[in-house]
Design a protein that fits this description.
The chain has nine helices and 27 strands. The protein is of the alpha/beta class. Helix 1 packs parallel to helix 8 and helix 1 packs across helix 9. The strands form nine sheets. A six-stranded mixed beta sheet has the order 5-2-1-11-23-22. Strands 15-14-13-19 form a four-stranded parallel beta sheet. A three-stranded antiparallel beta sheet has the order 6-7-10, with no helix packed on it.
């Protein structure tokens, strides 16, 4: 009788889940372990790139990673599905039926056992219960949504180009709600897109054809950055013609219209919602694990869930409040990568009969790219908490290094280096804007 393999199931193939699956598969292989990655999508694209996909400045087909091929290379299994239920007593997870676009079942409900379970499902945009957001706004939570935004944008630009032949003053109004990194970076990318379209056949599409509104409910943009840097970013955006409004709380969203508290009404052909992160509403029905009010899995400092030592939560779906920190670990790409490394080490320790170690979060700072116009941010200089403001070419190089580190995490040093070189070549030979 063959020895029962240790089965580690990872739910979610984002930055944290995919990096962890690669490291576990590479460490253990298939001889005594069975590493399984579950994701409802069939390919991965780094979430911080979605604003570039949405604006058309990045071709996602060149950047996404197919889970099946990646699994074959790195010694884990990929299962196409979404989590429906966790049975902690039986140590099983159940996936929901996988259906095609017409509603026909492709793969029926499926049950998988686990010895250790890692929840890395990511989060969703927080609509704060505001009326009309889910019905009338678009989101950038995955590639499908980014592709849809790009198609709606390009169709609207084509219509506007035809209209401007008779009415040169006609403009396309786009409203982005949320002054964090996604909203700020998308605003700048849209300006870059508008300035490029004239070279791609839209002959009367001038740089002022788009009217972009950026709304932030708080007192300033980019709370993760120093206030001085955030002010500089606002100045850059306003210099590009973007209508930036802080202390602008949206009260209601209708089709093509937003009602802003103390700010009247904004008409917008396209509305993009990019405010905060919360857990998916469905997680409450999946298990009895402890959740926050925002449906995030509560973890101990070891990243183990509070009710089950065999279940970990990492990335945007986790709420980890470390000793000495005023707030939980922030939902950022660097947090997800560090959490994956911690869980990798703790899974190894638990299998050897050792105690799990506490997660140590190292805030390396934050950087924001304003398309080709500017890159700004700050990096932390050491344990003393000092910060160094960056801009210009140095900031751009630091910003690009974040994605390169992600490539190395999911592909390893050899394959990751090849991917980095290939990306640089594609920048040169591919069109500036993706129009299909």
């Amino acid at each position: 009788m063959s020895e029962r393999k240790t089965q580690i199931v990872i739910v979610g193939g984002g930055a944290a889940g995919l990096a962890l699956a690669r490291k576990l598969g590479n460490r253990y292989g298939r001889s005594r372990h069975d590493i399984i990655l579950i994701d409802r999508n069939r390919s991965h694209i780094w979430k911080p790139l979605l604003h570039e996909v949405a604006s058309g400045s990045l071709d996602p087909n060149l950047e996404d990673v197919g889970y099946g091929g990646h699994a074959a290379i790195w010694g884990y299994r990929y299962f196409n599905g979404s989590l429906e239920k966790i049975d902690r007593e039986r140590r099983t997870v159940t996936t929901a039926p996988l259906k095609d676009e017409d509603g026909a079942v492709i793969v029926d409900r499926h049950e998988l056992r686990y010895d250790y379970l890692v929840l890395a499902m990511g989060g969703v945009s927080n609509d704060f219960g505001i009326e009309g957001v889910r019905e009338h706004a678009m989101f950038l939570e995955d590639r499908k949504q980014a592709d849809r935004f790009r198609q709606v944008l390009l169709n609207a630009c084509l219509q506007l180009n035809a209209k401007r032949r008779d009415d040169p003053g006609a403009r396309l109004s786009i409203c982005i709600v949320g002054g964090g990194a996604t909203g700020v970076e998308l605003s700048a990318e849209l300006v870059n897109c508008a300035r490029s379209l004239r070279d791609y056949g839209l002959e009367v599409f001038d740089h002022d054809a788009l009217k972009i509104h950026l709304l932030e409910a708080g007192p300033r943009l980019l709370p993760a950055l120093d206030e001085k840097v955030a002010r500089n970013v606002r100045g850059e955006l306003e210099g590009l013609g973007i209508d930036v409004r802080t202390d602008a709380m949206v009260e209601r969203v209708e089709s093509g219209r937003l009602h802003v508290k103390d700010g009247g009404i904004i008409d917008a052909r396209m509305i993009l919602w990019a405010t905060g992160v919360r857990g998916d509403n469905s997680v409450e029905r999946m298990s009895d694990l402890e959740l926050t009010k925002l449906d995030l899995f509560v973890t101990r400092p070891t990243l183990q869930t509070t009710l089950d030592d065999r279940i970990f939560a990492i990335g945007d779906c986790a709420s980890c409040h470390l000793p000495g920190m005023d707030r939980p670990v922030p939902p950022r790409a660097q947090s997800a990568g560090q959490m994956a490394d911690c869980v990798f080490d703790n899974l190894d320790r638990l299998q050897k009969g050792k105690e799990a170690r506490d997660f140590v979060y190292r805030d390396r700072g934050a950087l924001v790219s304003l398309s080709r116009f500017a890159t700004v941010g700050n990096i932390n200089t050491g344990p003393s908490g000092g910060k160094l403001a960056l801009e210009g070419r140095i900031a751009r190089a630091a910003y690009m290094s974040l994605y390169r580190l992600h490539l190395l995490a999911i592909h390893g040093w050899l394959r990751g280096s090849v991917q980095i070189v290939a990306a640089k070549i594609n920048k040169v030979v591919r069109p500036t804007v993706k129009l299909h």
